[in-house]
Amino acid sequence: MPEALSLPSARPAQVRHLVIVLGDQLDLQSSAFQGFDAAQDVVWMAEVAEESTHVWSAKQRIAVFLSAMRHFAQTLRALGLPLQYTQLDAPGNAGTLALELSKAIARLQPAALVMCAPGDWRVLQSLRTVAKEQALALDLRDDTHFFSTVREFASHAQGRKQLRLEYWYRELRRKHNIMMDGKDPVGGQWNFDADNREAFGKAGPQNVPPPSRFTPDGITQEVLALVETRFAEHPGSLHSFAWPVTRPQALLALQTFIAQRLPLFGKYEDAMWAGQAWLYHSHLSCALNLKLLNPREVVQAAVDAHSKGDAPLAAVEGFVRQILGWREYVRGIYWLHMPDYLERNALNAQAALPDWYWSGQTDMACLRDAITQTLEHGYAHHIQRLMVTGLYALLLGVKPQAVHAWYLSVYVDAVEWVELPNTLGMGQFGDGGLMASKPYVASGKYIQRMSNHCAACKYDPTQSTGPRACPFTTLYWDFLMHHEDGLKQNPRMAMQLKNLGRLDASARESIAAQATAHRNSQL
């Protein structure tokens, strides 16, 4: 808790600051609490339906936010902080953050509003509008949860033709002296991808440690019942809900990952296996994005594991790059380019998202496994997202905004600042290469190499036409044909286009016909 935070309880007679705390800001170290004085200030939190319906959120995602918020409110009360908290099922709940905040302002008459910068452009604009309409000053504070500020990233971006993760990552490594040996990276190289990203082999994963899962307590059980009733028509299931929703639970999940799964994280970070949802991943992104964990303590725990000889450098560097590098990078991209970033569609993809993305009922084994798992747990690891559900949507030509809405809906760790660039930029190439140096496209052979899905699938990843042709393979070649002229300008696509050039006119015609037939059957 910030040192300047002053306690004793009871709502002040005159409110100096109404301190806004959003559902992804559950952090006692938040800049919003700097200078908090319980004799003058009040914390405001509200559960509102709009945050679950502006995209049709899945039940696991709704539940994790509501449960974590209620547990954080319990912590604030235990500390004696004056708190105005509106539950979703409270009589008269107005249903939006803007309306509920306006009601609180009318009731409490604060002199000013204080808020840590939100992670969602839409929410920021909405609350800024309220402050303006109420003629109240809004003290919008930097989110000190992150290693960098949005202004630092904007400064890094100035004058650069390309914004690549690698250079930003190195800059942050040097600035924060993380895994550095003087001016050089520990181990003599910045990136250990060549030592990572293996497949499991025919035997599959062996003796994988179980994930950290937490039995729902009374607060969470009340939330689960509320979600089942209030959002009965929303996708997904709550039967397996066991996410960390408190800081002690999140810290235990971090400790368990470092001890049990980090040593093999790098080696198998891109591997998939049917029916194996958790594997060697950390499952910490939800706790990080809710601010139950601080990225500094997560990175330090991994670095300490290497220092003690408990985890290899390649695994630790790969994990640190996801937190210190990628997470900070996508946030910078988001705030640098919003709000127009949301509308980008560089490939002019216009198809609708297939309905079975909401049920998992497809005969493509890899997609069925990834989507079923997603709806059951609210989780899939990064390769399932990028190279299965995301790749298929990209090859099919789905409008990137529809793909974005699905990802934002179904994953428990989805907050727009991190989800949108990952989906629209990295996954769908909707920004035309602002983030990714090329479209991440591959045939079904990639999935065959990194998983066992193809062995139990009716489709053959080596075939692009015919009754057993793998849709990924068919659509891959069709994608290259359709975008060939534009991709010729990209040197990283040279090898793939060279392979495309080996197809004669007859083969191209057959692939195009098969791709059209497949699209018509799915949309």
Q: In words, what does this structure look like?
A:
The protein has 523 residues and is mainly α. The protein has 3 domains: 17-141, HUPs (Rossmann fold), CATH 3.40.50; 150-209 and 261-337, Serine Threonine Protein Phosphatase 5, Tetratricopeptide repeat (Alpha Horseshoe); 355-522, DNA Cyclobutane Dipyrimidine Photolyase, subunit A, domain 3, CATH 1.10.579.10. Helices cover 46% and strands 5% of the residues. It is built from 21 helices and 7 strands. It has helices at residues 50-53, 59-78, 97-108, 121-133, 150-157, 165-176, 218-230, 247-260, 262-265, 285-290, 295-307, 313-337, 365-377, 382-396, 400-410, 416-427, 444-450, 471-482, 484-487, 494-500, 505-522, and strands spanning 17-20, 42-46, 83-86, 112-116, 137-141, 180-181, 184-185. A 5-stranded parallel beta sheet has the order 3-2-1-4-5, with helices on both faces. Strands 6-7 form a two-stranded antiparallel ribbon. Helix 4 (121-133) links the parallel strand 4 and strand 5 (137-141). The protein is globular.
Instruction: Please tell me the CATH architecture of the largest domain by its name.
Output: Orthogonal Bundle
Order of helices and strands: EEHHEHEHEHHEEHHHHHHHHHHHHHHH
Name the poorly predicted regions: 1-9
Find the structural class using helix and strand composition.
Answer: mainly alpha
Strand order of the largest sheet: 3-2-1-4-5
Terminal CA distance reads 52 Å
**Mean of the pLDDT scores?**
96
Give the strand content: 5-15%
Number of strands: 7
